[in-house]
Amino acid sequence: MPFISSSRVNAASFSLFKRSMLQDASLPLSDVINDQRWQQVFNKHDIDFGSDPDVIYTPAITLWALISQVFFSGEQRSCKAAVIRVASLWAALGRRVCSTNTGAYCRARLKLSFTVIRDLVQQLAADAEAACDQNCVQSREQSAARLSPSSVADVKSRSTGGRILLVDGFTITAADTPENQRAYPQNPAQKPGLGFPVLRCVSLISMTTGLLVDLVSGPYSGKGSGETALLWQMLDALRPGDILVADSYYCTYWLVSACHARGVQILMKNHHLRDNHPQTARRLSKQERLVTWSRPSVCPAWMTRQEFWRQPLTLTLRLVDVQISQPGYRAKTFTIATTITDQKACPARWIAALYQSRWLVELDIRSIKCSLGMDILRAKSPGMVLTELWSCLLAYNLIRLKMLQSGMATGRDPRSLSFTTTQQMLAANWLLGAVTKTTEELATLGQQIPSSERVGHRTGRTEPRANKRRTKALALLKQPRYHYHQQRRAII
């Protein structure tokens, strides 16, 4: 096996990631992972440590080890396992390994702020999407050849003129420490000492590529912790021509107005408190009508009076009734509210297909929380909680980038490739790729494995959520652990 000569390796260079990602100059999007641009991001945040030639934990190797933890679960996710991977890397490069103690690695991780990793995530998504033609119209035959899921194929049958961004929120828990509890208090419905710190996150994910464009996190409860308030912090990530797809929770006058001011179209399920058939509506067809929303008369507490008076007096939206008929189920009807009022350019059937694609963000969040194990964070301090969170998101975008590369090389829709298979491939080659040259055979293997599976084609699949194998039954702790230990000592 052609190992890289130790004399050719610069441990401070982020080219380590290109090798671990099995990148080759002949591959599409191979320049998205640019070691010089990554170094510029670190320089921007004044992160510079381990510059001595004999130092192991440079920013590049520390981040490489941090990402390696995300690819694995259980014991292989620990800091000890990450240090052993670094030691194996160091030994394979012909360097002497003095110790596998985790202290130096843990101290180096503390020097990586979450802001620098967040910038890498956003830069990766922006560069990859800029290199992809997301607005190309595909015929039914082309979508069938690319094995596109039905909802994606319907959306791509027409040009959108901009990105289609899916928004949704989710929660994750962190280690139960006093510092984390202060920053991210547990669910107020739980008794003190029994819950875990909870973070609320809202994500923006591209419908066509699956890349995470941005994410904002905050406490689970308290002022400004709602999903709409978190989304408000990401509005600057939107660009004119984008289409924002969300559920009814986000369908508020203020959010629609803010998107309209930025030239962003919205497509959401109509809020349950709004009338789906107002008397003042102008009928377009049996299932469609134009409505006018008036600005609320009361200024919300979080908005200044100057901002309130700058809001438009009225907004014109199009309501589209959608009926879902699935064998074995009752027909379900709901109403979609959208600022896309051109009925000819975007007919009701296309509007329904675009909203149906919103389910993809649920699958993406499942990949982040379950496949990457981000539902339970292990960090003991709020700063490291955010660092661990964004390292998981960087690993997610790296996996999506590899899927996008494979799709472009094999002519497959990236939404038809398996996220889990791609993750397994990168996990298996993360260390191997770092210590070997990326040969033509290795690069080809990295392109073939993600496209070896097909997902997203089982329309209307229904399976009961039931497990045959029983889990081990353990007693539930119903009081703080220190109270439990006090009672045990009293009994003894």
UniProtKB/TrEMBL annotation:
GO terms for biological process: DNA transposition. InterPro entries: RNaseH-like_sf (IPR012337), Transpos_IS4 (IPR047952), Transposase_11 (IPR002559). Residues 448-469 are annotated as: Disordered. It holds the Pfam family DDE_Tnp_1. Residues 454-466 have a biased composition (Basic and acidic residues). This is Transposase DDE domain protein. GO terms for molecular function: DNA binding; transposase activity. It comes from the Bacteria. Residues 161-398 form the Transposase IS4-like domain.
